[in-house]
Design goal:
Blueprint (H helix, E strand, L loop, with lengths): L1 H18 L3 E8 L10 E6 L2 E7 L1 E5 L4 E5 L2 E7 L2 E6 L9 E6 L4 E6 L22 E8 L8 E10 L2 E8 L12 H7 L5 E2 L4 E2 L2 H15 L12 E7 L2 E7 L6 H13 L4
Parallel strand pairs: 1-9
Antiparallel strand pairs: 1-6, 2-3, 2-7, 4-5, 7-8, 10-11, 10-15, 11-12, 12-13, 12-14, 15-16
Helix pairs in contact: 3-4
C-alpha cells in the first residue's frame, strides 16, 4: 500500500512540474469596425505544424432544441514556450496570421478580423489612375426591397481642369438578371438609360479619401460562405481596369454609406 501511495505522489509531482511549463493562449476574435460576428475556424500553428483548432460557429443539440452556438472567446491550452501563429479568415483579402509569443505565462490575444491594415489605404486605386478624358464608374444595385426588388445608382467621377468632379445617376434596373452576369457590360449597354439625379460637384480632399477607402474595401472584399436571398452588387470600372463584387452582408452597405458621406457634405443630392 505504501508503494502505491509513493508512486501516486511521484506521478502527481511529476505531472505538476510538467504543467508548470505548459501555458494557454486565450483568444478573443471580434468585429472592431462593424457589429459583424466571426463565423469560421481558427487554427493554432507552430511553424508549419497545426497544433490545435476551434470552430467558432457550430450547430449543437440541446435537450429540447438545436441551435447555432458562437464562440467569441476560447483557449488553446497545454502549450510549451515558443512562437505560435493564429490563422483565421479575415473579412478582407489581407494578411490573416497573428504571431504570438508564449514565454512564461498564459497570455490573452485580441483579433479584429474585419480591420484593414493601415498601409493598404496607401495603395494606388482607380481614382489615382484616372486621366483626363476617362471616367470612373462606381455603380451599385441596392436591394432596398429585399429579394423582391431594388434599384441601381452610380457615382461617376472624371477629371476636368485639374479637379476631380462627380455626379450621381439613376441607372437601368438590373433586378432579375443573373448573379454571374457581367454588370460592367450591362451598365455599358444601358448607359443611354442613365439619368442624372444630382448636380455636378467638385470632390474635396476628404471625399477623395472616402472614395479611396471605398475602393480599397470593395476591391479586397472576401466573398462570404453564407448566401443571401437579396444580395447587393457593386461594379467599378474605368479605362484602367475594374472589378465587381456580390455582397451578401445585409449590414454592410458600402455604396449607400459613400453616397451619404458625399451628399451630406455637398448638399447637392435631389
Amino acid at each position: 500500500m505504501k508503494h502505491v501511495l509513493f508512486i501516486f505522489i511521484g506521478v502527481f509531482l511529476l505531472s505538476s512540474l510538467k504543467q508548470k511549463n505548459r501555458y494557454a493562449i486565450e483568444v478573443e476574435i471580434l468585429g472592431c469596425e462593424t457589429s459583424r460576428k466571426y463565423s469560421d475556424w481558427v487554427y493554432l500553428m507552430k511553424g508549419e505544424k497545426k497544433v490545435d483548432s476551434v470552430n467558432t460557429y457550430t450547430y449543437r443539440d440541446f435537450v429540447l432544441f438545436q441551435s447555432w452556438v458562437r464562440k467569441d472567446k476560447f483557449r488553446f491550452k497545454g502549450l510549451s514556450p515558443g512562437e505560435y501563429q493564429i490563422k483565421y479568415t479575415p473579412r478582407y483579402n489581407f494578411d490573416s496570421v497573428a504571431t504570438v509569443q508564449v514565454i512564461g505565462s498564459d497570455i490573452k490575444h485580441r483579433i479584429c478580423f474585419d480591420e484593414i491594415p493601415t498601409n493598404a489605404y496607401k495603395q494606388l486605386t482607380l481614382i489615382d489612375k484616372l486621366s483626363s478624358g476617362d471616367t470612373l464608374y462606381v455603380n451599385g444595385y441596392i436591394a432596398a426591397g429585399g429579394e423582391f426588388g431594388g434599384y441601381d445608382e452610380g457615382l461617376w467621377i472624371w477629371k476636368a481642369e485639374n479637379q476631380l468632379k462627380g455626379q450621381f445617376y439613376a441607372l437601368a434596373n438590373s433586378y432579375g438578371i443573373g448573379w454571374e452576369t457581367n454588370r460592367q457590360e450591362f451598365y455599358r449597354q444601358n448607359m443611354s438609360k442613365a439619368k442624372a439625379i444630382s448636380q455636378v460637384f467638385v470632390l474635396t480632399e476628404n471625399q477623395i479619401q472616402d472614395i479611396k477607402r471605398f475602393l480599397v474595401e470593395t476591391r479586397n472584399y472576401r466573398k462570404r460562405n453564407a448566401i443571401s436571398n437579396a444580395p447587393e452588387f457593386i461594379a467599378v470600372y474605368s479605362n484602367s481596369g475594374g472589378y465587381q463584387i456580390i455582397e451578401h452582408d445585409f449590414k454592410w452597405r458600402p455604396f449607400l454609406s459613400l453616397k451619404e458621406k458625399i451628399t451630406t457634405a455637398n448638399k447637392v443630392y435631389e
